Each structure stands twice: as structure tokens, then as C-alpha cells.
Amino acid sequence: MSRAPDPRHVLRELCLGLADVLPYARAGTSTSQEGTIAVATAKKLLEDHRRIDRLPWAACLEVSISHLTASEIDALQSNTAPDPFIISMSSPYAWLLHLPASATEHTGVLGPGLAALYRIARDNGFTYVRLDADAATIPSLSVYD
After folding, report:
1. Can you tell me the distance from the alpha carbon of 109 to that of 119, in angstroms, rounded to the nearest whole number?
2. Which of 33, 122, 109, 116 is nearest to 75 (CA)?
3. 55: left (phi over 0), alpha (psi -120 to 50) or beta
4. Domain boundaries in the chain?
């Protein structure tokens, strides 16, 4: 599994590429309506980047609840937060778990599914883990019935 991409970095790289191309696009705008639209779109994207770059970002790992054991699901359904996770949102078959930055090690007892998701989230820079019955599975993790 690769590290979670930083959206600000991805957008910054895209905008740098657009800034390099923008002078060439301007040269063609006098004869082309498409060139004018392209330049306006690039300028808007660069302006949006300046606003977005100041926003806080948090990476979220979305994964199927089939990676959890029945006892782990029961605990989540009873709103028992598995240490070090914090339950941010919940529904009958979906949860958004927050992994605080201070959680470098888990001190509580995690079942095998949550322990594996904790390691993946911590090792790859995810701040949230979204568990959903309809989400995809991770091939390298165990699946429980």
C-alpha cells in the first residue's frame, strides 16, 4: 500500500505544470476561443489553489467491514471506541474512526481486524479510517464472515 497522497502537493504540482504551459496557451488565444477558455480555466485553477492550499487536509482510508471480526463489529455498533481510535461518526453498518496524531502506539486491546487497520493507517499517514459494508477490501488483509 502506498502512502496517502497530500492533495495540496498534488494540486501544487498540477498548478506548476499549468504555469509553465500558460504562456504558450496565451499566444494562441487571439485566434482561438478554445485557447481563451483554456487560459481562463488555468487562471481560475491557480486562484483556487491559493485558497485550497491554506485548508487543513486529512487522509482517509476507506475499507470494508469484512476485515473486522464479529466482536469488533458488535463493539462498534454499541459505540465502544477501540483505543486508540475515536468514533467520529457511525451508522448501523459504517463508521468513521479518527486516529489522533498522538496515537503512535495503541494501548488498548484491538481485535485482529482493527489492529491490522491501525498499522496500515499509522504507517501510511491516514488520519481517518472509514469502515463501510459496501467499501472495497484490501487483498493483503484477512476477511471475516
Report:
1. 14
2. 109
3. beta
4. 7-52, 60-132
- Cell numbers 487483498 correspond to 139
CB neighbourhood size of 138 (10 A) = 16
| Angle (CA) 112 72 82, round 5° | 85
- β-pair type (94-98, 86-91): antiparallel
Alpha helices in the chain (DSSP H): 7-27, 33-52, 70-77, 112-124
**The residue count for the chain:** 145
pLDDT digits (tens, 9 = 90+) for 93-139: 899 999 987 766 666 678 899 999 999 998 888 899 999 999 999 99
3-state helix, strand, coil in the chain (%, to 5): 45, 15, 40
